[in-house]
Amino acid sequence: MLRPRDAVRNLKQYHPPLGNRQGLRLDFNENTLGCSPKVLQRFRELDAEQFARYPDRDPAEKTVANHLGIDPGEVLLTNGTDEAIHLVCETYLQPGDEALVVVPTFSMYEIYAAATGARVVTIPAGEDFRFPTENVLEHLNPHTRFIAVANPNNPTGALTSQPDLLRIAKAAHQAVLLVDEAYFEFCGETLIPGWRELPNLFVSRTFSKAYGLAGLRIGVLMGSAEQMHWVRRVSSPYNLNEAALSCLSEALADQEYVRGYIADTCHGRDLLEQELRSWGVRYWPSEANFVLMHLGNLCPRFIGAMRERGILVRDRSADYGCQGCVRITVGTAAQNERLLVALREVLAELGLRETVAR
User: Fold this and answer.
1) Sign of the dihedral through C-alpha 273, 106, 120, 203
2) 6, exposed or middle or buried, with CB in 10 Å at 0-12, 13-18, 19+?
């Protein structure tokens, strides 16, 4: 009888709540505005010949490297951040190794690490989801080969200080430190190009969030040219499609559009946090495009009542330390206005009262 590897049979499964998602989608941290009109125009200009040939990644990688101010040899375009995580795990992990993951966080770190046969060690975040730097350092040992940190973190929106991340990279010189900056644009803090002093450091980004290209699945993995050489051996040369590669340059060129979306999102995030404060609802200050709030046993009723009003929000109760928590993505100004109206109605229905004047 054909059987998969034990590591695969024992993997946790990631189950995105796709199904019936009719309504305002504030549950997936997606860009609710959409990509630049210039990207759509470029997409419409693609012809049959371009779709018939294998895509060439090199020109787009040079464009990205130039945009980020780094060398093309330090860049690998990936099929979303997910593939970046997967490639790092496949390059450096094997059975008997250990991977350290601070929870709660993006679940794919644990899944891709465990798929290699490595042992995944989860480390609880500190109070108020603070990053447990000292605890991570205490867990380092000769078997540690992979450490993943989302910065800002998902689902908490918390930001880990750069000095703390560099301490870990220096202490774990035999291990990869992957810093996932998927939400970088909403906080502005980056470790690029820290790998020039610390070759075990990798940084990943995505064009799904601030650039609105989630449907095209395009991300970027960055690291020292020497280490990226080995990661490229694991990567398919045709991992990205022609549409994604052709449209990326237009997305990068329209920075005015991206800056406008980021500014509106950060303003909307502030308004949402202010609203939650006025109702006395516990939340965690966010550096991303979403806010995590705590409603305890009111969580299911809140989610259902919001859905009845055509607004989808995400139950994060299954995440470590997030029982009774809901994550809400920040939308456009008009969407946020609709969100706040619904939020006030639902919180009042649940018996909460405003405690502080807005």
Assistant:
1) negative
2) exposed
The CATH architecture assigned to 6-31+256-349 reads: Alpha-Beta Complex (3.90)
Q: Which residues of the chain have pLDDT under 70?
A: 17-20, 356-358
Note the pLDDT tens digit of each residue in 319-358.
999 999 999 999 999 999 999 999 999 999 999 987 765 5
| One-letter amino acid for residue 173 of the chain | H
DSSP class of residue 356?
S
Assigned architecture for domain 45-253: 3-Layer(aba) Sandwich (3.40)
Residues forming beta bridges with residue 123, ordered by sequence position: 102
Start and end residues for every CATH 3.90.1150.10 domain found in the chain: 6-31+256-349
The 3-state DSSP class for residue 60 equals helix
Domain with CATH 3.40.640.10 in the chain: 45-253
pLDDT at residue 358, rounded to an integer:
54
| Sign (positive or negative) of CA dihedral 26, 28, 29, 32 | negative
Q: pLDDT digits over 184-193, tens only?
A: 999 999 999 9
Q: Classify residue 23 by its DSSP letter.
A: S
Residue 96: Cβ within 10 Å count: 10
Q: Please state the pTM of the whole predicted model.
A: 0.95
Check residue 356 and give its pLDDT. Answer: 62
DSSP label at residue 240 = S
